[in-house]
User: Which sequence fits this backbone?
């Protein structure tokens, strides 16, 4: 099983550029989410989705955009990259239920120059 | 606002020692608490999940307990090994739907020397 797949693994951007971080899961999970991990800050929720066509904001949504057209895919878009968005980004998925763990991808390491 | 704190931030022990990692949270209204392991440059691996109605979960040398009323959880690692060296993250789920948004602690970085 592939689980949660994130691409690319590494990316360097210049300030003002846009890009899309890809996330795909093959477990038919309804819930998908994006986190960013920064030194000293822990993981913080950016956006999440409870199903195709439904998205909502997390703790730190500014500068990011998401959509969920299929159950499998949940891309994260940086509209105009800023140095403050340099971080490691993780995608996670799960099915609903208090006994269901969340599954994480290996992350995308993004540097904004 | 839910806040999760992990103590200590770092821990170094010799191989074979039993150890306890601590996690505390401010709002007892949670669906579950999860412990994750993160190796350098890698993603998060779920170790144990404790539902709010449970008191503990065990997997091999790992045992996690939950005291929801006091807002505390502990992860007990028995007979530690160098391969246990990693960062351990505690996270609580207290979103509007069960099993959704996680609030993370900043982690405890464990180093086990041989």
Assistant:
């Amino acid at each position: 099983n592939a689980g949660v797949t994130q691409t690319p693994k590494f990316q360097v951007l210049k300030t003002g550029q846009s890009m899309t971080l890809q996330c795909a899961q093959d477990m038919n999970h309804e819930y998908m989410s994006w986190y960013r991990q920064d030194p000293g800050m822990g993981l913080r929720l950016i956006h999440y989705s409870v199903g195709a066509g439904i998205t909502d904001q997390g703790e730190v949504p500014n500068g990011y955009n998401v959509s969920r057209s299929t159950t499998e895919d949940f891309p994260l878009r940086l509209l105009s990259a800023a140095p403050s968005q340099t971080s490691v980004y993780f995608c996670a998925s799960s099915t609903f239920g208090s006994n269901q763990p969340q599954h994480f991808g290996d992350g995308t390491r993004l540097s904004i120059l | 606002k839910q806040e999760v704190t992990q103590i200590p931030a770092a821990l170094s022990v010799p191989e074979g020692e039993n150890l306890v990692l601590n996690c505390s949270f401010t709002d007892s209204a949670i669906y579950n608490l999860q412990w994750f392991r993160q190796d350098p440059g890698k993603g998060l691996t779920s170790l144990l999940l404790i539902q709010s109605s449970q008191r503990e979960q065990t997997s091999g040398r790992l045992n996690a307990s939950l005291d929801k009323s006091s807002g505390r959880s502990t992860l007990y690692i028995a007979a530690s090994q160098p391969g246990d060296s990693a960062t351990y993250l505690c996270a609580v789920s207290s979103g509007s739907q069960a099993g959704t948004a996680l609030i993370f602690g900043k982690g405890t970085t464990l180093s086990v020397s041989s």
Summary: The mean pLDDT of chain B is 93.
